[in-house]
Each structure stands twice: as C-alpha cells, then as structure tokens.
UniProtKB/TrEMBL annotation:
It holds the Pfam family Nuc_deoxyri_tr3. InterPro entries: YtoQ_family_protein. This is YtoQ family protein. It comes from the Bacteria.
Length: 149
C-alpha cells in the first residue's frame, strides 16, 4: 500500500519537513501548497497583471493558488492540516472542510489551545495530533500496522 498525503496549513514553521523526514522509508508521496509566502500572495498579479485594489490583488492570487490546492486535495488519500500559533489560518480551515466534503481521511495538527476554536474541524478529522511525529506514527501504522517503539 502507498499513500498520497497533502500537507496543508501554516507556513511559518518546519512541520512539513519534520513529517517528510520522519516518513523516510515509508511508501508516501507528499504534496503541499506553495509555502513561499510572498510568492503565494503575489502569484496572481505577477502572472496576470497588477491590481490597484488589494481585494482584487488577493483574489487573483487565491484563484491561481486554488488550482494547486484543489488538485492536491482531490488526489490525496490523506490530508494533514496544521493550525499554528501565530496567525489565524482561514485557508487551512477551508482546506479541512474541502477535504472532509470530498471524503478524504483528515488529520488535524494543532496545539491544545486551539481545541475549542477548532472543535467542528476536529470532529470531522480521523485524528487530532499535537506534534508532527504523531502524524508520522499514524502514517506508519496505516501503512505497516506497527505501533511506535
């Protein structure tokens, strides 16, 4: 068995790399959104032309980014969504809802202080993890049936 895993959510820490490194040797293929914040924000206007109004600037970027996000979530077997401490990640909540609506296996990665705010998102998940290592342990268990040692 192999898994296609989409890593969505906050882009300000190395949680994705921790999961990729921890899953070394497992039959897992990872995909993610563009994590270069400036590129993600400005892709629409850089490709399609400048906008004077910030709303339209952001909308162009969101639409261009949604091509990659939609494809990544649709093709994934498992979607991991990370909610970090620093910013409110509305896009991450949207990705979690999209994954849930598509019937994807969903793992939420969040600190305990977000439990109340994310209770509906968490209720749609197959697991709520606190650390990237727990996500790796879930992937290993799903693929190999082994528990952490």
């Amino acid at each position: 068995m192999s898994l296609r895993v989409y890593l969505s959510g906050e882009i300000h820490t190395d949680w994705r790399q921790q999961i990729v490194d921890g899953a070394h040797g497992l039959d897992v293929w990872f995909n993610a959104p563009v994590t270069d914040h400036a590129a993600s924000d400005d892709c629409g206007v850089a490709i399609l032309g400048a906008e004077d109004n910030k709303f339209w600037h952001d909308r162009k970027g969101a639409l261009v980014n949604s091509i990659r996000t939609r494809k990544g979530i649709e093709e994934a077997d498992v979607v991991v969504v990370r909610f970090g401490d620093k910013y409110k990640q509305w896009n991450a909540a949207f990705d979690a809802g999209m994954a849930s609506a598509l019937g994807k296996s969903l793992i939420i990665l969040q600190p305990p202080e977000h439990d109340h705010a994310l209770k509906e998102v968490d209720a749609a998940a197959m697991a709520v993890a606190r650390e990237p290592k727990e996500v790796v342990d879930i992937l290993r268990y799903v693929l190999e049936g082994t528990l952490p040692g």
